[in-house]
Amino acid sequence: MSEGIGAAVKRKEDKRFITGRGKYTDDIRMENQAYGAFVRSPHAHAEIKGIDTSAAEAMDGVIAVLNGKQLKDDAIGDIITGWAITSKDGNPMNVGAWNPMATARVRHVGEPVVIVIAESQAQARLAAEAVEVDYEELPAVAAATRALEDGAPLLHDNVPGNLIFDWEIGDEAAADAGLAGATHVTELDIVNNRLAPNAIEPRSAIAVYNDIDDHYTLYTTSQNPHVARLVLSAFYNIAPEHKLRVIAPDVGGGFGSKIYIYPEEITCLWASMKTGRSVKWTSDRSEAFMTDAHARDHVTKARMGFDADGKIVGLKVNTVANIGAYASLFATATPTYLYGTLLSGQYNIANVYCDVKAVHTNTVPVDAYRGAGRPEATYVMERLMETAAREMGMDPAELRRRNFITEFPHQTPVIMTYDAGDFHALLEKGQAAADIAGFAARKSEAASRGKLRGIGYSCYIEACGIAPSKAVGSLGAGVGLWESAEVRVNPVGTIEILTGSHAHGQGHETTFAQVVSDRFGLPMDNITIVHGDTDKVQMGMGTYGSRSGAVGMNAIVKAMDKVEAKVKKIAAHTLEASDDDIVIEDGEVKVAGTDKKMAWHEVGLAAYTAHNLPDGMEPGLKEGAFYDPTNFTFPSGTYICEVEVDPETGVVEVVQFTAADDFGTVINPMIVEGQVHGGVTQGIGQALLENVVYDEDGQLITGSYMDYCMPRADDVPSYVLEHSTTVAPSNPLGVKGCGEAGAIGSPPAVINAITDAIGNNNLTMPATPHKVWAAIQEVGLPQAAE
Amino acid sequence: MTQVTMTVNGKAASGDVPGETLLSDFLREHLRLTGTHVGCDTSQCGACVVHVDGKAVKSCTVLAASLDGAEVTTVEGLANGELHPMQVAFNDNHGLQCGFCTPGMIMSGIDMVNRYKTEGRELTEEAIRHELEGNICRCTGYHNIVRSIKDAAASM
What we know:
The complex is a heterodimer of chains A (786) and B (156). Chain A is an alpha+beta fold. Chain A is 28% helix and 23% strand. In chain A, the strands form seven sheets. In chain A, strands 3-5-1-12-9-10-11 form a seven-stranded mixed β-sheet, sandwiched between helices. Chain A has a five-stranded mixed β-sheet with strand order 7-15-14-13-8. Chain A has a four-stranded mixed β-sheet with strand order 18-26-27-28, sandwiched between helices. In chain A, β19 and β20 (495-499) form a beta hairpin. The radius of gyration of chain A is 27 Å and the shape is globular. The model of chain A has no long low-confidence stretch (mean pLDDT 97). Chain B folds into two domains: 2-77, Beta-grasp domain (Ubiquitin-like (UB roll), Roll), CATH 3.10.20; 85-155, [2Fe-2S]-binding domain (DNA polymerase, domain 1, Orthogonal Bundle). Chain B has five helices and five strands; from the N terminus they run ββαβββαααα. In chain B, β1 (2-8) and β2 (11-17) form a beta hairpin. The longest helix of chain B is centred in the last third of the chain and has 18 residues, at 102-119. The chains are: A alpha+beta (786), B alpha+beta (156). Chains A and B meet through α1 and α18 of A and α2, α3, α4 and α5 of B.
């Protein structure tokens, strides 16, 4: 039917957003609301010698001025890392303690030291400026490679050499042997530039303490309110879970940055209890650059060996990952199990080895951001493949073809078992859509206009869903990564779906309803999706890692299985037929092959009146399920980028970008394509524009949109999208997930295209006009196309 | 404190506000019109765009006190019984995801269509992309925003 699986249904949630009726956290105002403003460290590294709050306390409207020592004295816990990594020598990782507000030492610019609570936001901010903190500056280090050097400033007493862990995956001896026997070895030094996620809605929190019930409510910009409640309760000692409600209302984008439970939310909850007032804090953009978890920031040496036929015989990767001043929730998983495990790419490689050193530096904590580890892995693989093809004088597509995995399931040497894919089909679809045959003519035409035209490929694979729980548990995860759902059929037959997934742009209110509509043949209007409130939805793990489709929607399917079974029993009983003969079609419950039937709502009513149910059946029609998948899912694709470079200025224009993706079953192609558009644009942003810059002393240079270059509409083209589908065998719907693919696959395609155009492979992201111009000068202008 | 009186979405609106109050704060905090969003502090993101006397203005960049007597339209004031063609086009073309930048995109989109119509210029894809310089979206990659504005331009 037109609203079911595979239909491009227009979004149900749009109306409130296009009319300005969305309800984001900062739009909410509580009774008795006060405002919090943080005093933040201006130094990258310093001892706190004293704090003088007297001037601030005397200012108009100030209710309280609270510091980190008071917070610690009230037994509020330190911020945790959710994933324990074991070093290759068998030792557990070392991470520095992270106080929600600094007590003795600050370790990055922007670290909170004091919170001022006042009657208005302006008063709170003014008073925060009047707090005097006496700092004694310490030497600082911002670059991870520098932090590992002898004599580098040390951040935490319990982290010798700033080294959090030195982790490995794969067989080093085998990789070395493979490389030793190779007829050609390609070597690359790779920097994966540091990014700031930049959801356009800044983070915000409103903490509401009710002293009568000793109960807290937190409205917050979260991708996973249940995880927030769990962590706030179990580790930060705010309140037991039944005394703590977390609500994530409309959330304006996340991209990973709103997974984490930050110092500000914790402090606002505690400050609400201390002051007896509702405390609201809303970040401004400058604060966001200093507090929202940053991303990427890898420095890598990679060697890939080939035999005479162009088959990969060995891969060795050594990476230094910057974790920042403190290890955030998924920070240790991102450069390890979300990175090293994808270093087989789409290729059949017997020998892969990867070593990762994770390092504390005097910078904002780094954590998962759209793709999380997989963009870094894809960048390594696809820069290597393109470079190797050029070095060996081969067509880069042909080199990839010779190495593609073609049989599934395929066990890689780095844990993952790929269960489905057709990489040849993706490459063919991508090449056809990108009109590879016409490239030479386009290059020649561009040359006639004085432009250098280049083309670059990227064939990515990623692991999504971020489950099964047993697998992630064995790798060090602190939680299970299932998802829950509840299907409530009302007495009138309408349906509410309660899900632990959280939408912040992904369109769950539409796609999740489509899955239900498809199953029972009910109109979309009769189905509502409920999410984002721990008092409504029992438990959930939230949205990240492209998991809402692969895990969240399949939990709904499991709950619908139970509803369907009960509906069939009720109908069979009423219609005097066997359960097995009942079919549900177009909103009717029928006895197959007869004209006997009940309308869907009649079954709902029968379940609740309970006047005529089978003996022993409970009344009501509401079922829940917890779904834990049996494998990760593996979306894959071929991305082909074409650029034109102005050799006079180094300005790069992305003139064509083709994405051919395999996401398994697609529920709503319109929404899936939108995810690809957004992801690819973030990837082009990383490749051309975006870069978080610290100076050597740890001062943040890119602290606003004046300095950090976000992709604008005229930085990107309209995209050409293709699909090729292999169904994911590990879940009932067969979906793989689509949220991160664009950001994972696109950066190497862009850089491969630019380096092809200019004839110099020595280029780092972001490829700014200055860098591209300098790279052209380094090798001289390539010959114009003949 | 400064007394401010203006017309917002066709209705008289007034308030006694500190002189430094920005129009965005006046709309959001005093009038509780929270459809106008603030996504940055350097006038770059454009989530706060409203119309002042018929022209697109970043409401985070103008003092409420300077707009005494002005006619202001926010995203809440566009639908007049039925949705504005630009709002319809954003829904039809999947021109929004998280919705946070959307009010600014819609207000900028209407302004650019009106200006190009008045000036008799064709609003091409290239022109739309250039005109969106002051509006940042992190979700959509702009692809469907451009399509939405082009679509609306045909029916406005």
